[in-house]
Amino acid sequence: MNTQELLQLRKRHKARKPLFEREDSHKIMALRGTGWRRPNGLHSKMHHRYRGQPALIEPGWGSPRAVRGLHPLGLTPVLIANTHQLEGINAKTQGVVIAASVGTKKRLEILARTQEKKLTVLNIKNPSQYVAEQKQKREEKKQDKSTKTKSKQEKQAAKKEELSKKVETAESKDEKKKELDKMLTKKEN
Q1: Are 107 and 133 in contact (CB under 8 A)?
Q2: Helix (H), strand (E), coil (C) string for 3-14
Q3: Which residues, in sequence order, are CB contacts of 121 under 8 Å at separation 6+?
Q4: To the nearest 10°, the Cα dihedral for 101, 106, 111, 112?
Q5: Is the torsion defined by CA of 181, 183, 184, 189 positive or negative?
Q6: φ, ψ of residue 22 in degrees (nearest 5)
Q7: What DSSP string runs through the chain?
Q8: pLDDT digit string (tens) for 78-130?
Q9: What's phi and psi for 150, nearest 5 deg?
């Protein structure tokens, strides 16, 4: 069998494969999501494989060895964190998986290099559309930032005007007060 047939076989097997759960995980909340543990109890119905009990993990549930670990496209995933790691990748047998810790700027650089080298990116559905969306988001962010700085400058200018008006009014009040004091304290000769 070739790899495509084996991948189809694996897909059919996975559709029938049960979710292997730990014994009594449906009864005890603390056991939910803890992962598989083999039932060892002497009186365990699951251990003795009574009918109606959850299935046990066995070799028969596994996928074919030739396609184990392959992506559904038939490519071996290779984790990439920078553009230098793209050098030794074979486009026919390997696919690129960009690490989750990579930022947007470097991610866009990696995507540009993968398009140049005609490599398949496995964890982004449509790379060209993703690049366009991210560039648009970056432009919007820059515009928002520039409008924020403009509005901040306008607010600062308005505050300065208010302060200067307050200072002017305070000075004019002081002058009026001085004039009143002069008039009141003026001695008549």
Answers
A1: no
A2: HHHHHHHHHHHH
A3: 95, 96, 97, 98, 111, 114, 127
A4: -170
A5: positive
A6: -70, 150
A7: --HHHHHHHHHHHHHH------TTTTT-GGGTTS-------TT-TTTTT-TTSPPPP-GGGSPPGGGTT--TTSPEEEEESSGGGGTT--TTTEEEEE-TT--HHHHHHHHHHHHHHTPPBSS-S-HHHHHHHHHHHHHHHHHHHHHHHHHHHHHHHHHHHHHHHHHHHHHHHHHHHHHHHHHHHPPP-
A8: 999 999 999 989 999 999 999 999 999 999 999 999 999 999 999 999 999 99
A9: -65, -45
Q: The pTM is what?
A: 0.65
CB-side neighbour CA atoms (13 Å) of 130:
15
pLDDT in tens, 141-160: 888 888 888 788 888 888 88
Contacts of 134 (CB under 8 A, 6+ apart): 104, 107, 108
